[in-house]
């Protein structure tokens, strides 16, 4: 069996990666590492295009998985995400500590293939990468109104002015779109969600369309630069004011392990989410949004939080002060720049 492995560059993740490599090699698996991971571990690397791998393992977090999928968008190799944290992330069923329990199933082929739809995007006529979760269209400067026309299959559906608009797959429905009032959509559903963000027209609500719909956002105008943000990872300038989004031709394939064996692991994630929601239910909307961003993106500086949340700086600072006072978020001095603070979800609050 051949396994191609990719991991994020954090020290803790690389340590987990070494552990996974050791387990795989002991089981007689041929292991190949992608470029950046190999350099970090001082290992020979291979391009995924040159390896006929049975599985592509991605070790890290949701953020690292989404980044890798943007890079490996053409691969049809089944993907197995492995969380390096103590608990599964939203796109991860298993963690490094669970790997020993599941290695026999992985090697013996006792797993299925779970297709998940992606979004294909064209910006001003130029094709961009495919997105697993969502495409967000926002002004580069937060709290700046953008105006646009939404067309579905060539027919105008609405005109709007808002802070932005998010187009989401079912997989992405529990990500950014959920934070701005979008619906939760079960993954097999053949639909795409369209969510205006703080529309000036209260009648413009989230819309669900069939995933064979061509979505066009035309006549985009704003006093500052507008960007299309793919999976929260990649930003593309919108210069001529036209974006076309539709379901990508090829789905991404995830490894689907035994439902019986991962039932307990899914239970961990469910319990984590429920407990976290209980802690956050009395927070103001801005604090809930910042908490969701930190939970989804991991540790961030204040500037990064403002960018990711699209909140005005003053509102973001207020939200952070509430989260810190409630013990939900901690602030540490950045080792790279002592003038900056790094904000992260308080691990103790997650364990309550």
Question: Your description of this structure?
Answer:
By secondary structure, the chain is α+β, with helices and mostly antiparallel strands. It has 3 domains: 2-116 and 253-266, 3-Layer(aba) Sandwich (Rossmann fold), CATH 3.40.50.10330; 119-250, Tumour Suppressor Smad4 (Sandwich), CATH 2.60.200.30; 283-345, Arc Repressor Mutant, subunit A, CATH 1.10.10. The chain is built from 10 helices and 22 strands. The longest helix has 22 residues, at 259-280. The two termini are 41 Å apart. 37% of the residues are buried. The mean pLDDT is 87.
Question: Short description, anyone?
Answer:
By secondary structure, this protein is α+β, with helices and mostly antiparallel strands. It contains ten helices and 22 strands.
């Amino acid at each position: 069996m051949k396994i191609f492995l990719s991991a994020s560059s954090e020290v803790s993740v690389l340590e987990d990666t070494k552990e996974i490599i050791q387990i795989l090699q002991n089981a007689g698996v041929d292991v190949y590492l992608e470029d950046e991971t190999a350099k970090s571990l001082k290992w020979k690397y291979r391009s995924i295009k040159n390896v006929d791998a049975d599985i592509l393992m991605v070790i890290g977090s949701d953020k690292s998985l989404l980044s890798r999928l943007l890079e490996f968008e053409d691969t049809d190799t089944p993907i197995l995400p492995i969380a390096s944290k103590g608990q599964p992330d939203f796109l991860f069923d298993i963690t490094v500590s669970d790997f020993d329990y599941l290695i026999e199933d992985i090697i013996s082929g006792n797993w299925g293939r779970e297709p998940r739809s992606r979004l294909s995007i064209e910006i001003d006529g130029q094709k961009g990468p495919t997105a697993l979760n969502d495409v967000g269209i926002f002004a580069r400067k937060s709290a700046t109104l953008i105006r646009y026309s939404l067309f579905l299959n060539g027919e105008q559906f609405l005109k709007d002015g808002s802070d932005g608009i998010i187009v989401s797959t079912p997989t992405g429905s529990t990500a950014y779109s959920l934070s701005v009032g979008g619906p939760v959509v079960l993954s097999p559903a053949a639909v795409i969600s369209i969510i205006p963000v703080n529309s000036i027209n209260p009648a413009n609500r989230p819309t669900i369309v069939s995933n064979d719909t061509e979505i066009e956002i035309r006549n985009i105008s704003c006093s500052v630069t507008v960007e299309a943000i793919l999976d929260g990872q990649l930003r593309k300038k919108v210069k001529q004011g036209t974006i076309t989004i539709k379901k990508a031709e090829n789905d991404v394939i995830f490894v689907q392990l035994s439902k019986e064996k991962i039932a307990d692991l899914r239970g961990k994630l469910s319990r984590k989410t429920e407990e976290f929601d209980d802690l956050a239910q009395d927070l103001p909307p801005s604090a809930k949004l910042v908490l969701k961003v930190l939970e989804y993106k991991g540790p961030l500086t204040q500037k990064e939080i403002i960018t990711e949340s699209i909140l005005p700086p003053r509102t973001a600072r207020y939200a952070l002060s509430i989260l810190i006072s409630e013990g939900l978020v901690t602030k540490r001095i950045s080792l790279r720049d002592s003038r900056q603070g790094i904000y992260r979800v308080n691990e103790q609050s997650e364990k309550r």
